[in-house]
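Predict the 3D structure for this chain.
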Amino acid sequence: MASTSDSARSAARRLVREFGPLLVMVVLLVLARSTFANHYHVPSGSMEPALRPGDRVLVDMSAYGLRVPFTRHVLVPRDRPAPGEVVVFRSPADGTRLIKRVVAVGGQDVALVGGKLWIDGRPLAAPGPNGAAERHGARTVRLDLSDGGGPDIPPQRIPPGMVLVLGDHRGDSADGRWFGLVPEEAFYGRAIAVYWRRGEGPAWERL
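Done. Predicted structure below.
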């Protein structure tokens, strides 16, 4: 007659055979989500009109480097945050995960007057409703100035390795004007597109 210990070992082997592949798949999915792609649920209107509360956004978690899962250690560096990109990052104030737009990076001179940006001494204003749009390179960004421009930013130079982020809804965004500059290593990834619009359903709108 088999001993109790033999029976326990046999039962354990059966469990491994039956559930082992499922466990491996779950672990791989978790690692892939933390390393390559993820999604973000937009909680507020601070990035309107590009993002609305309740939208779901696809995020490229490898855009700024492949990291050891669940750590800040970068194994393979890639791009650096660039002006105009929508990014997901850790707030310097309390560690909350936020989504905002990069508006200035290390070495650039920046000022904000009435909600409108000046970079390296030049305004970014572009044609748009009531002039509420800015051009970051080839990307034109629509702004929401319906609540005013929020606090101004006096002229200053962004130090190397630091980034200024703002919301597109300038008068209703708790952003770099409140919590300061964000170090590059605090960025989780680059927002690629809206794949679900609140009240509308599936979508694919590039950011």
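Residues 20-36 have pLDDT under 50 and may be disordered.
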